[in-house]
Amino acid sequence: MIALGVDVGGTFTDLILADLAKGDVTIHKTPSTPSDPAKGVINGVRGICELTGTEPGRIDAIFHGTTVGTNAMLVHDGAVTGMITNEGFRDILHIGRHQRPQHYSIMQDLPWQSRPLIRRRFRKTVAGRLDAKGNELVPLDEEAVAKAARDLGAAGVEAILVGFLFSYVNPAHERRAAQIVRATLPDVFVTTSAEVSPQFREFERFTTAAMSAFIGPKVRRYVSRLSDELREIGVNGELRVMTSNGGLATPEMIAERPATTLLSGLVAGVRGGAWVGSHAGTDRLVTLDIGGTSADIGIIRNGRLAEADARSAKIADFPVMLPMIDIHTVGAGGGSIAYIDRGKAFRVGPQSAGADPGPAAYGRGGTVPTVTDANLVLGRLVADNFLGGRMGLDAKAAARVIGELAEKLGRTPEETAEGALTVLNSNMANAIRSRTVQKGIDPRDFTLCGFGGAGPLHAAGVATMLDMKNVLIPPHPGITSAVGLLTADLEYHALRTAFAVKGALDIARLQTLYDDMERELGAIFARDRVPSDKIKMLRQADLRYVGQGYELKIDVPDGPLTEAALDRVWQAFHDRHREEYGHAFEASPIEIVTVKLRGLGMVDKLAEPPAYTVSSEPKQVGVGRCVFRVDDTLETHDTPHIERNSLPVERKFAGPAILLQTDTTTVVPPGWTYWADRHGNVRMTHDNQA
Amino acid sequence: MQTRVDPFLAAVIHGALENIAIEMGHKLMRMSYSSIIRESEDFGAALTDATGRQLCECTMSTPLQSGPIPGYIAGILRELENRGDRVKPGDVFMHNDPYGGASHGPDVGFVVPIFHMQELAGFSVTTAHHLDIGALTPGSCGIVDAVDTYAEGLQFKAVRVYEDDRKVEPVWQILRSNIRIADLVVGDMEAQVAAARIGAERYSALLDQYGLDTVTGAYEDLLDYSENLMRDAIAHIPDGRYNARTFIDGYLDSPDPALKELPIEVTLTITGSDIHVDLTGTAPQTPNKPINMPLVGTVDCAVWLTLRSILLDSDVYGAIPQNSGLTRPITIHAPQGCLANPTFPAPVIARFCPGNAVADTVMKAIAPAVPKQVSAGIGNLRVMAFSGVSNSAPWVHMEIMEGAYGGRYGKDGMDAVDTLYANTRNNPIEDIESHLPLRVLNYELRENVAGPGASRGGIGSIRSFELLEDGAVSIEGDGQRFDPWGFLGGADGSPAKIELVQARGATVELPSKLPYRQLSKGDRITAYGPCGGGYGDPLERDPQAVLDDVLDGLIDAASARADYGVVVDGQGVDEAATRELRAGRT
């Protein structure tokens, strides 16, 4: 099977074409076209087909990561959207949780008020009300729904959200209203809040669903246009889009649930890291994807990507109540600016010089010192061999801006540059701690997988701060996300609010909820033509002690639910609570808040990576003076510059070394041992650690 | 540049400290049981040094909880000294002394000392507002009739709840037998201890890694750093005296004139990089009514938080660490025996809303000096405690009713939001109705009441609750008598209002302080939130913005014409008519 992965980033569209059975892989990069991303994708597909002499018709499947939905949120450029909601509750989306994002600010904006997803004039209310158990208190005023739809249609809205209180218990009113709206306005994108996320907390649910409506028309148009254009150039393979949960979805699913693509682009990187790790023999990884302005951190535990808890996920400062991979983004990258702030403290980032003018070293007029300049001053980047020599670096400009900062600090340029890296690495290490140590996970047993343009430069430094033993740099760090696209399954999630308390719960009802969800997902997989032997259903549930407001996700055994099976669930919850918070309330009653089903439709994936067989002596292309901090003092080492692709397989060398390749530079500090493994990954271990 | 520690290492340690405080708050919020902590986020988490100076605070916590933490430690250390006692490893203290830092009884601090090389090195502290603290009526807010602090509930002065790492059982038994809904409250307290211990553990590890001297040097630098920022900001304000006066409701239904329409007065004297804040002119303390505000823990926090929100606005200047260094350039005086510096045992439990009025008055005073950094007058808050007995189990639910901000330079006021020193969250309707015999009947913005201005004042909410069983309500609020102040030609905003519509038909307007009052099944309470003051001349408001408000149903066409001189014609502005109308007004 021939599979194509296409990951659209801000600057480049990365492609990977693979014969899955043989493991042959070709990669290609083409400039992204932000105003019309499909154009860049088509250019790229043409390009990689020409490059490999592949007939477009031979491509069996296209796996795609897109930022169309994310960008619509980030720049607040979505559809003109309307809402139909309960009488008396017109402004749930506007009032939110009545809390300000910042404690200490008069001039701040509340995003849901200053950038509303649905303006008040387009929020219509109708009679109809359910109670907390889903019983009807006031019948739905269907005539009012039809009138609201007509009014919104006349006002030119392109999307409508139907959102009612307690629809997560009983969706009948929402469904009926949506039916009326669809009948009235067949061309408008219509969604209901329970369809998007049937969970309690009206502000968060309505907001998530409003986001879906807001980005819906755009995402749907994009996917359908991309399908058409791919067909036009002869690609008939099936299109699959990566979703925020780390799985793939069909264009039909994306058209129905556009909000599932909000993290599409970011998640693929973590997937890619997980795949690389699994073939390198580790299923516990921290992925660190560092670019120009930010670093994205993901956690993989026992081969599974850590999920964000539903209460902390945000996009563009709006809460998102959907299953998402936990990706923690910090403002730390190659362009991060080092500066002395108003209070005279030394800081690095989150402001970034970006790509233009970029770091002073880029020679495009940048005048502020950045992390890239610091790396160059310390000899970690090689001026005449940056990105395989495709781009020269201006060492004098870097020395000048770092020198100016050093003078202000009363330190040497080397101390200043090294200090900038220490602070940057510490910011990333703290972010990793927040996702590991703070959740009861010991990062020391994990491997740090560094990729993206700047990940391999900083991975060893960050690992040192966290006492992490092992570092892994994939063969092509710049295209890890595209690789990740070829390693996922179709994945859909269903959930139901249960509110079932231990001791007073109805097992048969829980069983019914799971059965119902299995039917729901089964029907979708049937539509996707996934054979039944390729379908896997995994049960989960969100639990809390009665009275708490935050839940923890626990796996629920397969097969008929029994007391014994539930006992295992209760115990797993106590254990998980202790692990996560350092404390369990063993005597307190437990409540199952939500039951969840994860459905996987297994698809062919990228097989084992190609074997790496280089056996010659490593090719040293130069040597440079490199500054490292060793035991709290700065030392200068003559450091070899080695072509990464010349490293002989499985032969170990002592650092320091600078490894060069076309898409990044890897730094091996003194005290670290490095080698290329049999898949061409660079591995590093710290010598002091077993 | 003089620093004690390498600026790079200092940055690393500062990041680590902040990370610890965030972890404490995160865990407390997730482990806790009652909605006042987990949903409203009315809790604090911070680390201090051995003398109680605050090093860092949790960014999720509410300002009025983290801010007083240094005062708790000072109160505990003073109390221990008086007893001839001292802090030992394995201790955990409980403290809620209103005159010893806590500023009112429901906010209970749990304090874990941190030892390094056998020496006391600091404290890890969590504070939280508890649902009930064993006062005369159910709930810990809406107690507006207590005669002294003894009537306000249990008082803990540096009480050991753990000694040698062992639970002091009798104390926990006293808690369980004196607090209503003890399962919730004691569960929250245990969560507080667990979270404070995590902070202590992490801080110890930091001391082990870097050594006490380095960590101390780094946080001394951090305190200096915050102080420098604050001094720099103050130095930009012209020297001089800035005075303002506002009024609080007090007890509007009281026959005693000394209990209502009480002045809050603030005089700021700016000299170079120092600010002196004087509350002389503020009403005398109310001897038998608990709206007195302890100087330490309420008034000082209200002053500090307001000044930093204006002078070092985080939206403008980025995140600036909140610590004791920020407060060094500010001195505060309030005459002993006034509302803002009551004498023990004057009751204080309902000091929340008057404290926010102090914050508003500080903003009003400094406004002429920094007109582009303030909002016009804010709408104050109201706290309601609903309670009852359902299936023979007592229940209490506290809900904080939002206010609204005044208009700002180039921006309208924030609508329906917590104001100034408060920043809690509301409870989801779907949570309330799933767990309590209450129904929420509406929750939306009020219409046609906004404070006109070039920048319009923020709009208050309307929110109604119906009792599904017999129960009770208590109310502790303010802002029903006086309009939030307009600024630079903006009109005043409008006050709050609370109505009780009884099941049997009568409608009663309720005062902002309502002691425990029984309600019947079917009774409905409607809270109308206040609207902030306008900023700048309404005739200068962009006609398009006025039109938007009309199209959004926030004001009607008559108000557009009367208040703003804008003629709205269907879906658009009649520009010629608007020009003419406005020209005739000026």
Automatic annotation (TrEMBL), chain A:
Residues 4-184 form the Hydantoinase/oxoprolinase N-terminal domain. Residues 508-679 form the Acetophenone carboxylase-like C-terminal domain. GO terms for molecular function: 5-oxoprolinase (ATP-hydrolyzing) activity. GO terms for biological process: glutathione metabolic process. GO terms for cellular component: cytosol. Pfam families: Hydant_A_C, Hydant_A_N, Hydantoinase_A. InterPro entries: ACX-like_C (IPR049517), ATPase_NBD (IPR043129), Hydant_A_N (IPR008040), Hydantoinase_A (IPR002821), Oxoprolinase-like (IPR045079). Residues 205-492 form the Hydantoinase A/oxoprolinase domain. This is Hydantoinase/oxoprolinase family protein. It comes from Nitratireductor arenosus.
UniProtKB/TrEMBL annotation, chain B:
GO terms for biological process: glutathione metabolic process. This is Hydantoinase B/oxoprolinase family protein. GO terms for cellular component: cytosol. Transmembrane segments: none annotated. InterPro entries: Hydantoinase_B, Oxoprolinase-like. GO terms for molecular function: 5-oxoprolinase (ATP-hydrolyzing) activity. Residues 6-538 form the Hydantoinase B/oxoprolinase domain. It holds the Pfam family Hydantoinase_B.
